[in-house]
Amino acid sequence: MKRFFTKNTLLIGILSFGSWHSFGQGFVNLGFESANLSPVPSGQYGGYVSTLDAIPGWTAYLGANQVTQILQNNMTLGDASIDILGPNWNMGGIIEGQYTVVLQPGGNGTYISASISQTAVVPANAQSLQFKAETSSFSVILGGQNLALIPLGTGANYTLYGANIPASDAGQSEALTITALAGPNTTDYFDSFVFSPSSVPEPATWTLLLCGAGLFGVVRQWRKR
Questions:
Q1: Could you give the CA distance from residue 123 to residue 21 in angstroms, rounded to a whole number?
Q2: Which one of 39, 79, 109, 174 is most buried, by most CB atoms within 10 A?
Q3: DSSP string, 121-147
Q4: Strand partners, 152
Q5: How far is Cα of residue 24 from the mean position of the Cα atoms in its chain?
Q6: 8 A C-beta contact, residue 60 and residue 43
Q7: Cis peptide before 151 (omega within 30 of 0)
């Protein structure tokens, strides 16, 4: 009896460590909901908070320089910054959940980009990356490759984007970097990144599907008549 208990205890310990180790290697906080921030009083603007508390798992950059603080419930008027909205933010901009990240490239004459980045293991079954954003000029880079982004749909204050990822990235440790490209008066909102086991149809495929759906509708109407 004692021997049986010892073996099972050891087995459970190994499985638990394996599960934790795999999770620890994967991407975290892709929806920005892991923030550990105190609410800013209603109607007021916040100040600078640590990136460790605001966007755990991510590293923030203005241009090529890493920053360790970002604004909470506040934005700049033209200067480059990285901001987080939430919790209990009721002045617009939240895409989903309690938190949304805002990237503001900018500057006075010499504009710099704003970006967040995370290096981790891409899920082994991942075929695409999808996310929600309200943006103007931005890029998403995975493993050093600029992903070809395809609009998949729209919501009240966002566009759902998708991008197929190289098969060689699946199961590998890669850097995921989201960048609001340098320029004046740009404010880009990002939320709800997710690796999907399904691929994203290419634009030509979408066109064929829409044409097929239209033709199907015409045939149905003709048959009814």
A1: 14
A2: 174
A3: EPPTT--EEEEEEE-SSEEEEETTEE-
A4: none
A5: 18
A6: no
A7: no
Pick the CATH number of 29-224 from 2.60.120.260, 3.30.40.10, 3.40.309.10, 3.40.640.10: 2.60.120.260
Strands 145-146 and 150-154: unpaired
Task: Spell out the domain ranges in the chain.
Answer: 29-224
Please report where in the chains the tokens 């490209």 appear, as a residue: 181
Decide: residue 127, CB within 10 A, 0-12 exposed, 13-18 middle, 19+ buried: middle
Q: What is the pLDDT of residues 165-217, one digit of tens each?
A: 999 999 999 999 999 998 777 899 999 999 999 999 987 544 444 444 444 44
Helix (H, G, I), strand (E, B) or coil at 164: strand
- Report the distance separating Cα 75 and Cα 81, nearest Å: 7
Residue 93 CA to residue 85 CA, distance in Å, equals: 7
